[in-house]
Design a protein that fits this description.
The complex is a heterodimer of chains A (114) and B (486).
Chain A: H1 15-24, H2 28-34, H3 41-58, H4 93-97, E1 103-104, E2 107-108
Antiparallel strand pairs in A: 1-2
Chain B: H1 11-16, H2 22-40, E1 43-46, H3 50-58, E2 71-75, H4 102-109, E3 113-118, H5 152-159, E4 165-169, H6 176-182, E5 185-188, E6 209-213, H7 216-226, E7 255-259, H8 269-284, E8 288-292, H9 300-315, H10 340-351, H11 354-367, H12 372-393, E9 399-403, H13 419-424, H14 430-435, E10 439-446, E11 452-458, H15 464-478
Parallel strand pairs in B: 2-3, 2-4, 7-8, 7-9
Antiparallel strand pairs in B: 1-3, 4-6, 5-6, 5-10, 9-11, 10-11
The chains are: A mainly alpha (114), B alpha/beta (486).
Chain lengths: 114, 486
């Protein structure tokens, strides 16, 4: 069973990232499941190693004290712009369905849900 | 008349005065593309409607705008109604855009002819163009080397003269780095200047459309039309200048900052020498050159890759095989999907390439419960420190200049097996995107291997017009006239 952080690499991870990381000790398969991706058995080890390396790389940030720093989620401080609440004609239903792989009676058809 | 080397700025008048027909111009570029694209793989598709459009222009049926008759190549992550828009991904291989991107419509409204769509790293994720589902584009200066990425196809298209100008998008350097690798000008405007409506999303707080041209003025020409208020993009804002090309910037008394963190140890000696040489020229012109510090530069790559991957994992969740794009309903052994969850997984796993999957996984991890604060929030906090570095630097200088990347174009395949080495390539471009600033790359010369080197110019937010005026003055000092021999 492979974990995001194999035991021999634990010493590279320091600070809060390490604790957050170790608290979960999540498998790459679990992350893939959250992301709705399937990873072939043959790819798991490669992804796992690259993932571990990336996490160690990101750990560089833990050396910075950011306790009082407000997170910056977008470059410019801006308020949500509002627009007039009126109906605007844009694409037709047919145009919106043009690229749909499977349509029936103007509805998207998917495999059984329940 | 040398049609392939006409300035995009001269074409509208020549067409209007009927000294050149839009049709003959289009055909010249079309022939060039047909002949040479098999070598460089920069173009993914020609626009079938371009010929009729050129005829309409020649008949006087198109309003004569500032881009009348100018052929433009679009990176294939910009939607053009009725044309395939693939983002170089298998998952969108057969997607036909039902609408046109706002910035593209602006070009059309000004009389441009969309001639072709260009190659890119899948969903703009990459620095070499090697992540394209349709195969990598090649650098016209050396076909064994990468053109840079992700807008590599557009940079190659301008460098190889498939069009005088092209569109790209820059999320972490995707316009500036390929421009520098291919010896052309690439401009990324201030975040929020150009509407992202109709540009396929990668990382929404970083993505910004921009342009390529042979010269600064040519690249700025379409960009001026693209900068236009659009309420359909909530992050699109009014800019403080009326004309992008209206600014002027004397080199005398101009303060230029050199970031000591950008002149890093790994910088090639050719690049280092060339930048020192341009500094001397600027000083001789009366510029005040000052050393500045951007102390958090070293953190830009982990911050960028956490923020970009997180936003990408969210943005790319829309590709589910239901409403558009690839759908896969059978497992490799022919069994139908058991349920909706398996159907999503099969579709996405078959549709996305390796790098896209890698970033979705990283982003999903950093946004997941228990890791969000330690990874995503932490990255956003350090992002502010990086942004504050620039705010502080611009109290000492008007512009920052420096390298675009640490070296010229690398060889195809050289970095594909090592994602971190590939990511580190973006160390000098990603800080600009994190801070939302305007920046450009202009050719600085050729290195000892005969490969182009680029000079990056960074300006304060919304000083795009002054940046372009300054870059034109720099361009005249550098006087780069080389072209690749494809």
């Amino acid at each position: 069973m492979k974990y995001l952080l194999s035991s021999d690499k634990k010493s590279y991870i320091k600070g809060p990232l390490r604790e957050a990381h170790l608290a979960k000790n999540q498998q790459i398969k679990e992350v893939a499941d959250l992301a709705c991706l399937q990873i072939d058995e043959s790819e798991i080890e490669t992804f796992q190693n690259q993932f571990d390396e990336a996490i160690q790389f990101f750990d560089r940030l833990s050396s910075l004290d950011t306790a009082d720093i407000k997170p910056m989620v977008t470059p410019h401080d801006m308020k949500t712009p509002l627009r007039e609440d009126r109906v605007v004609r844009d694409l037709t239903v047919d145009e919106l369905l043009e690229n749909a792989p499977d349509v029936k009676d103007s509805l998207f058809r998917v495999p059984p849900v329940v | 008349m040398d049609l392939l080397n006409l300035s995009a700025c001269d074409i509208p008048n020549l067409v209007k005065q009927k000294r050149v027909s839009a049709t003959e111009l289009l055909q010249a570029f079309w022939k060039r593309g047909t002949d040479l694209n098999p070598k460089v793989n920069a173009l993914l598709a020609f626009n079938d409607d371009a010929e009729q459009r050129a005829k309409n222009i020649d008949k006087g049926l198109v309003k004569p705008g500032r881009l009348l008759g100018v052929p433009v190549v679009l990176k294939d992550n910009f939607c053009l109604r009725g044309m395939k828009t693939t983002a170089a991904s298998r998952i969108l291989e057969n997607f036909v855009a039902p609408y046109t991107a706002h910035c593209v419509q602006r070009l059309i409204d000004e009389g441009a002819i969309i001639i072709a769509k260009s190659n890119l790293d899948e969903f703009a994720m990459g620095s070499s163009n090697e992540n394209s589902y349709f195969g990598a584009s090649k650098n016209p200066w050396d076909l064994e080397r990468v053109p840079g990425g992700s807008s590599g196809g557009s940079a190659v298209a301008v460098s190889t003269r498939f069009a005088p100008v092209a569109l790209g998008s820059d999320t972490g350097g995707s316009i500036r780095q390929p421009a520098s690798f291919c010896g052309v000008v690439g401009i990324k405007p201030t975040y929020g200047s150009v509407s992202r409506y109709g540009m396929i999303a990668f990382a929404s707080s970083l993505d910004q459309a921009g342009t390529f041209g042979k010269t600064v003025r040519e690249a700025a020409l379409p960009l001026g039309a693209m900068i236009h208020r659009d309420p359909r993009d909530g992050t699109n804002v009014d800019v403080p200048y009326s004309e992008l090309l209206g600014g002027s910037q004397s080199l005398k008394k101009c303060r230029v900052g050199i970031a000591k963190e950008y002149m890093v140890a790994g910088l090639s000696s050719d690049l280092s020498r060339s930048i020192e040489s341009i500094i001397k020229k600027l000083e001789a012109e009366g510029c005040e050159v000052v050393e500045i510090s951007l102390p958090h530069t070293t953190f830009a790559i982990p911050v960028y890759y956490l923020v970009a991957a997180s936003e990408a994992s969210s943005n790319l969740s829309r590709y589910d095989g239901v409403r558009y794009g690839l759908r896969d309903i059978e497992t490799p052994d022919g069994r139908p999907a058991a349920d909706l969850a398996e159907f999503y997984k099969m579709t996405r796993s078959r549709g996305f390439g390796e790098e896209v999957k890698r970033r979705i996984l990283l982003g999903t991890f950093s946004l997941s419960a228990g890791h969000y604060d330690a990874f995503y929030t932490k990255a956003c906090q350090v992002r502010r420190l990086i942004s504050q570095d620039f705010t502080q630097a611009f109290t000492h200088c008007d512009f920052v200049i420096g390298p675009v990347s640490t070296d010229s174009a690398f060889k195809l395949g050289e970095k594909t097996s090592d994602p971190i080495a590939m990511y580190n390539n973006d160390i000098l471009t990603t800080p600009v995107n994190l801070a939302g600033l305007p920046a450009l790359s202009l050719p600085l010369g050729l290195d000892s291997q005969g490969l182009p080197m680029g000079l990056q110019v960074i300006a304060p937010a919304f000083a795009d017009d002054r940046m372009i005026a300054f870059a034109e003055a720099l361009e005249a000092l550098i006087d780069f006239t080389e072209v690749p021999n494809v």
